[in-house]
Amino acid sequence: MLKPNSLRETLLKMLPELAAGPDKLTLTVSRGVAIATLAASLSYEKQYPLVVRVLGFTGDINSLLVPVIAWLRDNQPDIMTGAEGQKSGLSWEAESADGGGQNITLTLLLTERTQVTESNGALRADDLPEPQPAVPVTRPKELYVHGELVSSWNE
Q: What is the pTM of this model?
């Protein structure tokens, strides 16, 4: 799977608190399903909830949600374009952490396509990236929350 590692890399790059303490960040996949049909190929789609847990987060919740939403724009855009995705594609919970900060749990409903091809009697499975948007989109390089610079990064 491509998306869990991609999101982890993005969060570590965009949030200095997590870059300094990557052990605060865990990503877990459970209850995934593989959707296959009787089409000529064995290609299928993986559908799964990705649970992102950040322990003892001391930043503003916006400094976590904004990078996740920016990542979703490129990696799971249907969460932003469809009514069902907008309602349940990204959910979160927060609780006070022992020792300060908050334990934050995000749940993202993700999909990934796997292309299965056959050649010379052998099967090959390749995870496919999300199709890129047709229109070039300018990507920001800084994040401000309540007027304060909380993070900056290079592409």
A: 0.82
